[in-house]
Amino acid sequence: MRKPYALPVAALLTLLPLVSFGQETKQVNVKSQNPWQREEYSVLKSDPKVKHGLYRGYVGGAREVLAMEGYYTNGQKDSLWTLYNRWSNKPELQARGRYQQGQKVGVWEYYAGKNELEQRYDHTRGQLLLHKADEKSKITFTPVGTSAALEREAVYIGGITTVMNFIGTNVRYPVDALRAQKSGTVRIAFTIAPDGSVSNYRVAKSAFASLDEESLRVIKLVPATWVPAQAAGQPVAVECEIPVVYTVR
Q: What is the pTM of this model?
């Protein structure tokens, strides 16, 4: 787990003239800290708030790595986008697919570690085409309101790797827990309904008060895009538990 940076968020903007997609643009280079990241993109010269053209996002500070790249058209994600595993020392795919007017369209591919395909999902038709369950995952699913065995666990659109990367990117080690040298695993539970909606977030296993609070905060931020679990051929509610691990280094 990365320790929080002591420096406040800072941004450095560099504007250079450029022409993109037939419209005059300016290139922008944004650096920020906590967490460290850098963005390269273009904006319309007529409206600097509107991204337009190639976008690249980097993370990692001194060991900078490419985290994502794609295109914007008039402020909306468009065309092919590729996301990379920011926690890997080598280039590894995390997701790849197309946007149209800011929305994911067509078939997207989502990857686990070592460029292993984990999931294919058709965002236009709302269909799960392929999903490989991670047998080593510490995430659990328990049926609610039925004694029937699960034929399929709830599936996160984007794969469990996406969930864990989101948690790792957004969690902040609480200062009081760092000072007290508190480590441990917090397990956050919530209910995934038969329609895929999420509710009833709670701490299922506690480690330390501020670690519990931070874990609950971050899990609530995870976009609720679930394909519901199935039992006896029907969608059913399940209780999902996700671990958030803290280690003092």
A: 0.80
